[in-house]
Design a protein that fits this description.
The chain has three helices and two strands; from the N terminus they run αββαα. It is low in regular secondary structure and 184 residues long. It has a two-stranded antiparallel ribbon with strand order 1-2. Strand 1 and strand 2 form a beta hairpin. It is globular and about 50 Å long. The termini are far apart. The mean pLDDT is 77.
Length: 184
């Protein structure tokens, strides 16, 4: 992760990056490892979330494939013995079987059909310290083009980090400002 150490102060003209082609995922650029080679087209995950329960079940050895044009996977992982009251062992097995989220795919959890999220974020597979270092050293996302963090193939580091939330009233030194989820 040494190549990402200067990324917090790096600039990246995300608006000028090409949109990733179908099946292509952003990877760190060889010219500037702080910037991805392409950017994902915006995706509305609520479309998939609304229809997730009606997706066909994947075959026993089939892994879901994310389609960025549809903002959804082609099937959902079967949950053996699913009964909406998941045991710790079922949750562990579900997470182990869940695919890694593709670029542009956002994990979501539907407790009516699964014991875990639809996919696992790539950073979740990295050591906690490596993921923390990546986040600390990542460049800020470009708000002017509505850039959001995307996973990069072969890296624990996302393409950028979202701007820190602003709080009103301003937090004291002993408080942490966190997004409330309520529009101001």
């Amino acid at each position: 992760n040494a190549e990402y150490m200067g990324c917090a102060a790096a600039t990246c003209n995300v608006g000028a990056l090409p949109v990733c082609a179908a099946g292509e995922q952003p990877v760190p650029s060889t010219a500037n490892p702080c910037c991805p080679t392409c950017r994902m087209a915006p995706c509305d995950a609520s479309i998939c979330r609304a229809n997730y329960e009606t997706l066909r079940l994947c075959a026993a050895t089939e892994k879901p494939i994310f389609d960025p044009a549809a903002c959804c996977v082609n099937c959902r992982v079967q949950q053996p013995n699913f009964n909406a009251a998941c045991t710790p062992d079922q949750i562990k097995a579900c997470i182990t079987a869940a695919p890694v989220c593709a670029a542009g795919e956002a994990p979501f959890f539907d407790p009516t059909v699964s014991c875990c999220a639809s996919c696992v974020r790539p950073a979740a597979l990295c050591a906690m310290t490596a993921a923390g270092d990546c986040f600390k050293n990542a460049r800020p996302c470009d708000a002017a083009v509505n850039e959001v963090p995307q996973p990069q193939t072969g890296s624990c580091c996302p393409t950028c980090k979202p701007a820190a939330p602003t709080c009103n009233p301003v937090c004291t030194d002993k408080q942490i400002c966190a997004p409330s989820g309520v529009d101001a």
